[in-house]
Specification:
- The chain is mainly alpha-helical.
- The protein folds into two domains: 164 residues, Rossmann fold (3-Layer(aba) Sandwich), CATH 3.40.50; 237 residues, Calcium-transporting ATPase, transmembrane domain (Up-down Bundle).
- The strands form three sheets. Strands 1-5-2 form a three-stranded parallel sheet. It has a three-stranded parallel sheet with strand order 6-7-8.
- Strand 7, helix 8 and strand 8 form a beta-alpha-beta unit.
- The longest helix is centred in the middle third of the chain and has 41 residues.
- The radius of gyration is 30 Å and the shape is elongated.
- The model has no long low-confidence stretch (mean pLDDT 88).
Length: 453
């Protein structure tokens, strides 16, 4: 007999898959492959994709790096389901948590795996506090996709069942698109944190100055109209400015945020408290010493605008002419808003060693437009708002003082990063416990998703 030839078939990886897996590893994401192929085929494909290396196979004494689905189920003890007799809520747990912890530390390839194996793997990883994402396209993948924190379904080859069970549909069926989702997801998380830093700082200083001013002085330092403008800045414009920051590839070069990590961490508390204290001190100095600093003497009985009674005692005034008191309180308002505008720039950088807050400053046109718009509207309100805003036009020197108070917050931001270690603020925390599975199932997002499907 004469051999004429050997014919072989191979299903090649998509272009860029190996690079995408390498980037996932660099980003702190552990990539595992669950497949129905036999073990040898699964090992060959995972080596080609960069999921495992020859070194992993050399240090596989327990046989946990590459496992068969059957062996995996036996080792971890399968799934144990419990039903709450009152709520009838079902809770699934891994049978042998200790064994699963040992397996999960090394497992990278699961061959001849069934839908139950994938579900066990996702359930066990979530019990260990991991954030789990699952990709799949078949009907059998639906339980794991639904159980995962984030489910990625294939838009072309994926079944309707898989798409309905997932959170994100990849329209090009490409694993590389997962990196895009990760990049945007991290960017959204950072945007929320930036907004929280700015918002809490504004609230700290505004509440203190309004409350203490109302107790110490006869009149509140900021009026209702002025506070409405401040609220518009911190609730609407700041959210648009900080949430529209475009994502960068640098987001993929850091480790992921843990499930139980504080959304407002010690570094953020340092910036919030440091900037809040600075703003409070500046405003109190203006309120207590401003009469001498700006040569604007007045008494507690002085009205903001001259009335008939005031004109009788001060004939040099005309009716509704602003007094020194109105001018000083306008300086307070101007300085307060300018400090918030410059603090938006500080809020752009959340890292412990991010000293350059102007890095990529011109990448976000929305931020620049909103910053300039708020600045122009503030000047317009002070110059032309009059009695409606309780403001009087300021001279050039007074405006420069207010601008200096605001701009110094940038320098102050660098100073507090240099002199205050984040460990001093570890005790500060906001209750941000993650939702349980039952709470997540009844959340607004879950209800909307079900109705949409």
């Amino acid at each position: 007999m004469i051999m004429i030839g050997i014919f072989g078939l191979v299903d090649p990886l998509r272009p860029g898959i190996k690079e995408a897996v390498a980037q996932c590893h660099k980003s702190g994401i552990n990539v595992r492959m669950c497949t129905g192929d036999n073990l040898d085929t699964a090992i060959a494909i995972s080596k080609e994709a960069g999921i495992i290396s020859d070194a992993d196979l050399l240090h596989n004494e327990e046989g946990y790096v590459c496992m068969l689905g059957k062996n995996f189920r036996e080792v971890v003890g399968g799934i144990i389901s419990k039903v709450d007799p009152e709520t009838q809520a079902r809770t699934d747990t891994v049978g042998n948590k200790k064994a699963f912890r040992d397996v999960a530390a090394k497992l990278k390839v699961l061959a001849r795996s069934s839908p139950e194996d994938k579900y066990i793997l996702v359930t066990g990883l979530k019990e260990l506090g991991k954030v789990v994402a699952v990709t799949g396209d078949g009907t059998n993948d639906a339980p794991a996709l639904n159980r995962a924190d984030v489910g990625f379904a294939m838009g072309i080859t994926g079944t309707d069942v898989a798409k309905n069970a997932s959170d994100i549909v990849l329209t090009d069926d490409n694993f590389c698109s997962v990196l895009t989702a990760i990049k945007y997801g991290r960017n959204i998380y950072d945007s929320v944190r930036k907004f929280l830093v700015f918002q809490i700082t504004v609230n700290v200083s505004a509440l203190f100055i309004v409350f203490s001013g109302a107790l110490i002085f006869a009149d509140p330092p900021l009026t209702a109209v002025q506070m409405l403008w401040v609220n518009l800045i911190m609730d609407t414009f700041a959210a648009l400015a900080l949430a529209t920051e475009p994502p960068s590839m640098a987001l993929l070069d850091r480790q992921p945020v843990g499930r139980f990590e504080k959304i407002v961490n010690a570094v953020m508390w340092r910036n919030i408290i440091g900037q809040g204290i600075y703003q409070i001190i500046v405003l109190l100095i203006i309120l207590f010493l401003g009469q001498d600093l700006f040569d604007l003497p007045f008494t507690p009985e002085t009205p903001f605008y001259a009335n008939q009674e005031w004109i009788a005692a001060n004939p040099e005034f005309t009716y509704m002419q602003p007094t020194n008191k109105c001018e000083l309180y306008t300086i307070v308002f101007q300085a307060f808003v300018f400090m918030q505008l410059f603090n938006i720039i500080n809020a752009r950088k959340l890292g412990n060693n991010d000293y350059n807050v102007f890095e990529s400053f011109f990448n976000n046109a929305y931020f620049l437009v909103i910053f300039v718009l708020c600045f122009v509207v503030q000047i317009t309100m002070v110059e032309f708002g009059g009695q409606a805003v309780r403001a009087v036009p300021l001279n050039t020197e007074q405006n420069l003082y207010c601008l200096a108070f605001g701009a110094f917050s940038l320098i102050w931001g660098v100073v507090i990063k240099l002199i205050l270690p984040p460990s001093l603020f570890d005790r500060f925390a906001i209750s941000d416990e993650p939702m349980t599975d039952a709470e997540e199932a009844n959340s607004t997002v879950a209800v909307f998703r079900k109705s949409y499907r």
